[in-house]
Amino acid sequence: MSASPGSRAALATRGPAPQLVVRSQAVDGVSAQLLDHLPDEGGLAWVRRGDGHVGWGVAARLDVAGSNRFQEAMTWWQELTSAAVIRDEVGVPGSGLVCFGSFGFTDQDPGELVVPDVIVGRRGDTTWVTTVSPASSLGAPPELVVHEPSPVYDVAFADGARTGTDWSSIVADAVRRITAGELEKVVLARDLIAIAEQPIDLRWPLHRLATAYPNCWTFSVDGLIGATPELLVRREKGLITSRVLAGTIRRTGDDEHDLALAASLARSSKDLEEHEFAVRSVAEALEPHCTSMNVPETPFVLHLPNVMHLATDVAGVANNGASALGLAAALHPSAAVCGTPTPVARDLIGEIEGMQRGRFSGPVGWMDASGDGEWCIALRCGQADPDEPRRMRLFAGAGIVAGSDPDAELAETNAKLVPMRDALGD
Ligand SMILES: C=C(O[C@H]1C=CC=C(C(=O)O)[C@@H]1O)C(=O)O
């Protein structure tokens, strides 16, 4: 599966939203994994523990950038869904009309919403197919075929915008500026370039990510693929949830030692401080949208195969009609990917990080016609190069506070790059 170079400009929808006819039907006897159904071009995916949905084709698409991007996307989706004729015979989250989407970290980084022609979804024992067609040409549900991805061989990795040593020195600079009182926390990121012998079939790393990181959300949207552990926001039937992560320790592979490390993470004042900034930013952004909110006082330790994180699950009851995307817009950028205070951290990132993040650390997810959906933060991910299909940019960042050690932060970003490196066969 390639990223369909050039699709961004060619398929951009700027005029009135098209009128779509949508039908979701349950299908029996489908035992293949959702990702197995992805064709070799332009597939979309959102999978966790075998559930989720995959899609292909483009029934409608909006490309957005600029300070009004979230509002533009919401208006487009509102118009598209109100004009659509939807026959949903399944009635579970993800059936009916859905779009996949991703947004840049900054206003200038482009993002998109995509409605596929075909969506295959699964929730527990229910598997369904959704077809989306223009009103004039109602399509029949396709035969579900299993496709084999091509293995990725001989991947070489090279520094991206900065060497590790240079990146550590900008972390040291950030620590000085935090100590001087300019700000409290900033999240700094770096990139790594992966170059394979042959064009990269994105389905290969996607399968490996979904297998190795079943508790993460494995995604593919327009050439951005990854397995993220951080749920920015889910809205489902009036319930709003968010999983906030910040504060990290590497795993060693020795279970007993890792348990001791988890205990030290839970006591680390530097990590607890870093985590607290992130929780506060999420709680403050969600508060106007919730009647009652549960924000646990103490984080738990989330164990992933490569790292452990301090984690807090925030929950609330929606008190207004804000869609999942509206909530994601209110939350982005949280202090898990930007810092505190947000504007100062954002400026510092622009000043010293030395690279364009693109859609890394922006919202990535999906939404249905009622506005329910899930938006995660695009972490542990890579961006396929639209001009060179053998190449991907991989990303990782780390939260910097007054007590941060630049070498330890560099090691942390290396641990966060492991999922994508392994998925590409390193
Ligand atoms: C910015 C990243 O992680 C964020 C999410 C979890 C833990 C983080 C940390 O401990 O620094 C970061 O805030 C990344 O994975 O690239």
TrEMBL record:
Keywords, alphabetical: Isomerase
Domain Chorismate-utilising enzyme C-terminal positions: 165-416
GO molecular function, one term: isochorismate synthase activity
InterPro entries membership: ADC_synthase, Chorismate_C, IsoChor_synthase
Keyword Translocase among record annotations: no
Parts forming coiled coils: none
Protein name: isochorismate synthase
